[in-house]
Write a structure and sequence with these properties.
Immunoglobulin-like; 22-stranded antiparallel barrel; single chain; 957 residues; mainly beta
Length: 957
C-alpha cells in the first residue's frame, strides 16, 4: 500500500489551483419535441459529462476552452455530435432520431486509444447500456453468452469463465480480464474471477472483448483474448442508483428445488465543487447454487477398454466402446460423475488379484461407495457474493484526472480444475491509484487475496479411508459376494456396514477435521493429512503509456508503454513449494511496447477511401522463463460504409503460478508444475510416473506393451506461443443492416497440456504394481509438448432494423482444432495403425487415444434475438434463442473424456420504464423452458433462472 500512497502524493503534487469555468446548459428532445430523460451528454475526449433530467434539460461545467464537441447518446437513438461555440453554450438544443441499430460505438481496447469500432484493426465486441438493457441475462457479465464465439462456462451461480477460440477451460489462464485496467485474475491460482470479485452491476459502463491474440499491447497471457470492463465515472454518472432483484432457480428438481435468490445493489456518486467527485458501490447476491448432480457412471479414458479399436489396424481407436452402467447395484465399477470417493483413478477402486479365492472376482475392479457433492459440502448449495467499491476522483489541471479506488470481492464458490474445489470464504482487495490525461496514463495497483479451499474428491477419499481402508472394504465385499446368489448391491451393503452416513455427527467430525487442516499438516487423531490449501498471494503492478501523436504533429500516431509486476506467492507450502530456506517464491515480470499507425485518405465525400496500417511490438520477460517479442501488424481499408481489416499477430503465455510451481502433497493426487522445483518436489526425478494412456492398455489387455517411465527435462519448461492471422469486414448499410464477419487461423507451439501420470507410491516398485490402483496416485504434470496445434474459425454477426423499433439479430461462430503429434525428439508420431498423425481433429478417437489435448470447444454455435426496447414509450422486450453444438471434453483428474450433447436455451425479458421515478421494472429468465444442460463435464447442470428486478437510476442527482 505504501507504494500506491506515495504515487497518489505525487499525483496531488501536480495539482493546479484554479482555472476558468464554463457552464453549459441545454435540452435534449426526440423528433416529436418530447423531452428525453437519462440521455448521456459527454464532452468528447474527456470524462466530463452528465445526464438529462425528467424535462430533458442538462447543465454541465467545464474548464475546457471553446469550441469543443459534445457527444449525446441514448439507448434506441442515433448518437449526435454537437459543436459548442461561444454563441450557443447557454442554449444547446439537441434532437435525437430513433435508431434501432447503433454501430458508431467507440472502443479503446483494440489499439489502447479511442477509435470507431467499425475501423478497429482486430475483431472487437462491445456491450454497453443498450445491450445490457435488451439482454435477458440476469446481469451484465452473463450478457457475454450472447456474443459470437464466446463460451461462458458456468461453474457456480456467481462464477463463470470466459472462453474464446478453443481450449475451453473452467479456469482459463489464456484469456485476460481487466477491471478498470486491473488484472482480474487470482495472483496465485492464475485464472480470472469474472464477477466474483468484479465491479458492481450498477457501476458497469461497458464491456469490451477482443477474441484472439492480444499480447502485442497487453502482454503475456492475452494469448486467446482480452476483456476490459469499465466502470462509470462519478463526474458523468451521478446520483443514487439502486436495484432489487428476486428470482428462482433449481426448478423441477425433485426433493430439492425450486430455490430463491436475492440480488441487491446500490450506487451513489456525487461531484463536489469543480474538481472532486466520489462514488460508493455495494452489491450482495445470495441464493442456492446450481447443483452438480450428474450421477451417471463416469466416462473416462482411464476405463479398461474405453476406446473401441480395430484389431486389424494395430488397435487404433475408432470410437468409444465403454457403455456406462448407471446402476451401482449392478455395476462393479460404478463411478458417479458427481460422486466422490468412488473414483477409479483416485484410490477409490480395488482390483482383485488374478488368483483371488473367489473365482467370480478374479481380476475384477470394484469401486467402493462414495459421497455426493451436497453430502460433502453440507451447506445445501447455498452461495453468496459481496462486491464493494469506493473511488475518489480529482481533476488536476485542465486535462488530467487523478483517482484512487478500493475494490472488494467476497463470497463462496466451486471451481473445477483437476478436481472440484470448494472455497467457503474467498476475499480479495484491490487498491488502485491512477493519473490520466488526454495523451497518457500512469497506473499502480495491488491485489491482496485470501483464498482458502479444499479438494472435494480428496476429502471423500480420506473420509472413506479413515472409516475403513479400501483393502479391508474389498475383502469384506469379496467374502460376501457369491455369483448368482448374492448381488453386487447386497455385497456392497455388507462392506458398507457402519459407514459414516452423510450428515451424521461422525461424518461431520471427520469431514470438518480434514477440511480445516492444511494438506501439508498431519492430523494425529485421524492419522492422515488435511485437504485444505490456501493461496494468500499478492500482486503489485505498475504501468504507464504515452501518446506521442500530438508531439509528432500528425505525421504518424505513436504510443508507447511499459509495465512491471511482482507476484508474492503465499500458500504455506499447500499449493506451491517453498524455497530451500523456507521462504515463499516470488515472480517478477517486465514488459514494454510501442505502436505506430497512420491513416491515409484518398478522395472526398461519403465514399472517401482511407487506409490505416498499424504496427506494434512488445517485449516481455518472466524471471524464470525466456523472454520474447510479440509483434502485430494490421491494416484497415475503409470505403464509405465498408470496412475491411486484416491482421497478423503473435502472442505468448507465461504459465500460471500453479503451472510453474504446483505440488501435490505426498500420497495425494493433484497438479504438478513444470519447473524443477515442482517436478522434483513431487519426486518425479527419482520416482518417474507412467502415462495413463500407456498404463490403461497394460491393465486391461494381456500381452499389451509394458509402459515405460515418463521422463521430461523440467529445466526446458518455457512459454506457450501462438501466431494468428485474421481478416474481417464491418459495415452498416442505410443505418438498418449491420454486418460483422471474420475468419482466423492460429498455430500454437510449446503448448502446455498437462497429462495424467500414474506415480507408484513405493519408489522402485516393479511396473506390475500398476495393475492395482491402490499402488499409485494420479498426477497432472505440466510440460511443453512438441505438438503443432492449428485452430481455424469464422464468425458472422448480423443485425437488421425491421422498423418501428424492432431489430432482428443473430450470430454464428465456427471453429475447429487440428493437431500434428510429435515425440520428444520432434519426430511425427503415428497412430496405433502406423499412420502419421498430421493435422487431424483433436476430437478424433485415434488422436485422443494417444493423450489428452484439451481443445474442448463446440464446433458450431449460434444465437438469434428479436428485440424492441420501445414497444411503447415505456415497454420493451427481447426474445433470444441460443444453440451450442456437441463438444468433445477431456477434463481433469477425476472428470473424464466424453461427448457432451448439444444444448439450446430460450431466454426472454420484458421491461417497463417508469420515468417519474427514474426506474425500470424487468421480468426475465434464461433457459425459460428449464431444459437442464451442462457446459462442462462434472460441472453443475444449468436449468432455468427466472427473475424480477426494479432499478432506480440517478435519483437525488
Amino acid at each position: 500500500m505504501k507504494h500506491i500512497s506515495f504515487s497518489f502524493i505525487l499525483i496531488l503534487a501536480l495539482s493546479v489551483t484554479s482555472w476558468a469555468q464554463t457552464i453549459l446548459s441545454g435540452q435534449v428532445t426526440d423528433a416529436n419535441d418530447q423531452p428525453l430523460a437519462g440521455v448521456t451528454v459527454l464532452i468528447r475526449g474527456t470524462t466530463t459529462g452528465t445526464v438529462t433530467q425528467a424535462d430533458g434539460r442538462f447543465s454541465l461545467s467545464t474548464d475546457k476552452e471553446l469550441p469543443f464537441t459534445l457527444s449525446v447518446s441514448f439507448i434506441g437513438y442515433r448518437r449526435e455530435e454537437v459543436v459548442v461555440r461561444g454563441n450557443n453554450f447557454r442554449a444547446i438544443d439537441v434532437k435525437l432520431a430513433e435508431e434501432a441499430i447503433t454501430a458508431d460505438e467507440v472502443v479503446v481496447s483494440a489499439s489502447r486509444v479511442p477509435e470507431d469500432i467499425r475501423k478497429a484493426p482486430v475483431t472487437v465486441e462491445k456491450l454497453g447500456a443498450r445491450q445490457f438493457a435488451n439482454s435477458p441475462a440476469a446481469n451484465p457479465f452473463d450478457a457475454l453468452q450472447n456474443v459470437k464465439g464466446v463460451d461462458l462456462l458456468t461453474q457456480s451461480l456467481t462464477f463463470k469463465s470466459v472462453n474464446v477460440r478453443g481450449f475451453g477451460a473452467n479456469n482459463n489462464n489464456r484469456f485476460v480480464q481487466l477491471t478498470d485496467g486491473m488484472d482480474n485474475r487470482s495472483p496465485g491460482l492464475g485464472f480470472g474471477f469474472g464477477s466474483v470479485a468484479g465491479i458492481s452491476d450498477l457501476d458497469i459502463e461497458s464491456i469490451e472483448l477482443i477474441p484472439g491474440a492480444s499480447s502485442a499491447l497487453y502482454g503475456p497471457d492475452a494469448l486467446q483474448g482480452l476483456m476490459l470492463t469499465s466502470s462509470k465515472n462519478p463526474f458523468t454518472y451521478q446520483g443514487l442508483s439502486a436495484q432489487m432483484k428476486v428470482g428462482l432457480n433449481n426448478v423441477g428438481k425433485s426433493n430439492f428445488g425450486p430455490k430463491g435468490y436475492i440480488d441487491m445493489a446500490v450506487r451513489y456518486a456525487k461531484q463536489v465543487g469543480t474538481r472532486f467527485a466520489y462514488k460508493v458501490n455495494f452489491q450482495r447476491v445470495s441464493g442456492t447454487d446450481f447443483i452438480a448432480d450428474d450421477y451417471d457412471d463416469r466416462s473416462t479414458s482411464a476405463r479398461t477398454g474405453f476406446f473401441s479399436t480395430d484389431a486389424g489396424q494395430g488397435g487404433v481407436a475408432t470410437g468409444i466402446a465403454y457403455v456406462p452402467n448407471n446402476n451401482p447395484n449392478t455395476n462393479f465399477e460404478y463411478d458417479g460423475v458427481n460422486i466422490y470417493g468412488d473414483d477409479i483413478n483416485n484410490a477409490g477402486a480395488f482390483r482383485f488379484p488374478a488368483n483371488y479365492g473367489n473365482a467370480a472376482l478374479q481380476g475384477k475392479l470394484v469401486t467402493r461407495t462414495g459421497y455426493t457433492e451436497l453430502d460433502l459440502l453440507g451447506n445445501y448449495g447455498r452461495v453468496y457474493n459481496n462486491r464493494a467499491n469506493i473511488s475518489l476522483h480529482y481533476k488536476v489541471g485542465r486535462n488530467m484526472e487523478a483517482s484512487v479506488g478500493w475494490y472488494y470481492g467476497n463470497g463462496n464458490f466451486i471451481r473445477t480444475a483437476g478436481f472440484r474445489e470448494y472455497f467457503p470464504d474467498y476475499r480479495r482487495h484491490q487498491f488502485k491509484a491512477e493519473l490520466r490525461g488526454d495523451n497518457f496514463f500512469l497506473r499502480a495497483y495491488t491485489t491482496q487475496q485470501r483464498a482458502e479451499g479444499w479438494n472435494i474428491g480428496q476429502t471423500a477419499r480420506i473420509i472413506n479411508t479413515i472409516w475403513k481402508p479400501i483393502s479391508q472394504w474389498a475383502d469384506e465385499f469379496g467374502q460376501a459376494y457369491v455369483e448368482n446368489k448374492v448381488s453386487i448391491q447386497e455385497a456392497r451393503a455388507v462392506a458398507d456396514r457402519g459407514r459414516y452416513l452423510p450428515g451424521s455427527s461422525d461424518f461431520r467430525f471427520v469431514r470438518d477435521g480434514i477440511t480445516s487442516v492444511y494438506n501439508n499438516e498431519r492430523i494425529a487423531l485421524l492419522n492422515t493429512t488435511g485437504t485444505r490449501f490456501r493461496d494468500n498471494s499478492q500482486l503489485f503492478h505498475y504501468e504507464g503509456m504515452y501518446n506521442f501523436s500530438q508531439l509528432l504533429n500528425g505525421v504518424v500516431d505513436v504510443i508507447a508503454g511499459s509495465s512491471l509486476r511482482r507476484f508474492l506467492l503465499e500458500s504455506g507450502g499447500t499449493a506451491f513449494p517453498r524455497r530451500p530456506d523456507g521462504s515463499e517464491y516470488t515472480i517478477n515480470e517486465f514488459g514494454a511496447y510501442v505502436q505506430a499507425s497512420k491513416e491515409v485518405g484518398f478522395g472526398t465525400g461519403p465514399d472517401r477511401l482511407t487506409i490505416k496500417p498499424t504496427v506494434a511490438v512488445r517485449y516481455d520477460k518472466n524471471q524464470y522463463l525466456q523472454g520474447g517479442f510479440t509483434p502485430r501488424a494490421s491494416a484497415v481499408v475503409s470505403a464509405g460504409v465498408h470496412n475491411v481489416r486484416a491482421s497478423w499477430q503473435s502472442a505468448f503465455r507465461n504459465p500460471a503460478p500453479g503451472q510453474l510451481f504446483a505440488i501435490s502433497p505426498t500420497g495425494q493426487a493433484g497438479e504438478v508444475g513444470g519447473l524443477p522445483q515442482a517436478y522434483n518436489g513431487a519426486g518425479l526425478n527419482t520416482n518417474p510416473g507412467y502415462l495413463q494412456v500407456e498404463v490403461t492398455p497394460y491393465q486391461s489387455t494381456t500381452g499389451a506393451a509394458v509402459p515405460q517411465p515418463f521422463i521430461i527435462d523440467p529445466t526446458q519448461f518455457t512459454t506457450e506461443k501462438i501466431k494468428t492471422w485474421e481478416v474481417g469486414y464491418k459495415t452498416l448499410i442505410s443505418n438498418r443492416f449491420y454486418v460483422d464477419a471474420f475468419y482466423f487461423s492460429s498455430r500454437y507451439s510449446d503448448f502446455i497440456a498437462a497429462q495424467n501420470v500414474f506415480q507408484l507410491l513405493t519408489p522402485g516398485a516393479d511396473v506390475s504394481a500398476l495393475l492395482t490402483p491402490t499402488n499409485y496416485r494420479t498426477l497432472q504434470v505440466n510440460f511443453n509438448n512438441r505438438n503443432e496445434i492449428f485452430v481455424r474459425g469464422a464468425g458472422i454477426g448480423l443485425e437488421y432494423g425491421l422498423g418501428r423499433g424492432y431489430t432482428l439479430s443473430g450470430n454464428y461462430a465456427y471453429q475447429t482444432g487440428l493437431i500434428t503429434l510429435r515425440d520428444a525428439r520432434g519426430a511425427i508420431r503415428n497412430d496405433r495403425a502406423g499412420v502419421p498423425v498430421v493435422k487431424r481433429k483433436m476430437s478424433n478417437p485415434e488422436v485422443s487415444q494417444l493423450g489428452r489435448n484439451f481443445f474442448i470447444s463446440p464446433e458450431n454455435r449460434y444465437n438469434i434475438s428479436l428485440a424492441n426496447p420501445r414497444l411503447t414509450d415505456r415497454l420493451g422486450a427481447t426474445l433470444t434463442y441460443r444453440w451450442t453444438d456437441r463438444t468433445w471434453v477431456e477434463q481433469g483428474t477425476t472428470a473424464g473424456d466424453v461427448w457432451l450433447p448439444s444444448w439450446s436455451s430460450v431466454d426472454a425479458q420484458v421491461s417497463y420504464r417508469v420515468p417519474a421515478f427514474k426506474s425500470v421494472v424487468k421480468l426475465g429468465g434464461t433457459n425459460i423452458f428449464n431444459q437442464y444442460y451442462a457446459q462442462g463435464y462434472g460441472l453443475a447442470r444449468i436449468g432455468g433462472l427466472y427473475y424480477l428486478s426494479i432499478t432506480f437510476d440517478e435519483l437525488m442527482r
